Amino acid sequence: MFGIRIRFQSPLLLQTLTRLSPMAAAAAAAYSPNPNPNPAKRKIKRVGTHNGSFHCDEALGCFMIRLTDSFSDADVVRSRDPQVLDALDAVLDVGGVYDPSRHRYDHHQKGFAEVFGHGFNTKLSSAGLVYKHFGMEIISKELQLDVGHPDVLRLYLAIYKSFVEAIDAIDNGINQYDTDQPPKYVSNTNLSSRVGRLNPDWMDPDQSSEKENAAFDKAMALAGSEFLESIRFHTKSWLPARSIVNECLTARGNIDPSGEIMVLNKSCPWKLHLFELEEEFKIDPPIKYVLYQDDRSKHWRVQAVAVSPDNFESRRPLPLSWRGLRDEDLSKESDIPGCVFVHMSGFIGGNQSYDGALAMARAALKI
């Protein structure tokens, strides 16, 4: 059985990748049909995975490992022939061996139980294995920071949690929820499902290895583009928001002596960061209300913090007697001028001024 070497051939896919991040521009060069005009000057490394039906984990794993310095211009060889695989520089998702010293990253063998660590317990797929060993390098290159910089580790953990872990779990057949009840609906829009649909259709008369490898080419591009987009989001949005929330959480004692009211000095996504930072710094008592200015109305909002990131129940909802009231009726009931509204559930309210919103939060703590 021959190993099949493939490289990205679609100019449109290359353009898509290069728009996502600076790192993708360099990576895209490795996907061109002939990145090195004189290959005799440098040995082209080869990364192997299995042929046949493909999944998201090896498609993403092959993409990620080629973002590294060691494998930046590697050919991808798809084969199940042990003799072919043994001769390769790295092998993913096939071969029955996990040995990072030899760059062997399979997870199907009996007794394999490797996890990411850092509090994560999901069994790794080939994507998770590559990310575990190369993710810090990939992220440090994108951030243009030393691999030891704390922001590199923060993004390394955050991207595993929000992106890579789901691919590991789906590939290993791990349910998202501990329940024996059937799901209430079917969702086939996740990345693993979309990559799976790129496999040649069983009804297609052309079942050639050439068509299969062209489909895997598209699978690597799809998985890789979303991985790079996740890095871009975490770099440009997630990390700055975390810094803002961290700063505001640290300053909460200047807002109210209780330490249970936090004011955002800049509007940003704050909820998940707040939960993670509270846990990281052992904040006690936890934050009950977050104040921020609405960008459109310029009014101030006072929002009750939920009991957990995926729960609608608030730690301390705004008072029952305020709920559903607006404007003068609410100001009269609360004895606080400038009130605008309080939601029927008590999870959020508004005031025309910062002082008014702070007064609402302080009063709610006492009721």
TrEMBL record:
Keywords of the record: Signal
Record-level GO cellular component terms: cytoplasm; nucleus
Full protein name: UPF0160 protein-like
Keyword Signal in annotation: yes
InterPro entries, per database record: MYG1_exonuclease (IPR003226)
Highest taxon in the source lineage: Eukaryota
Pfam families, per the entry: MYG1_exonuc (PF03690)
Family: Belongs to the MYG1 family.
Range of residues in the leader sequence: 1-26
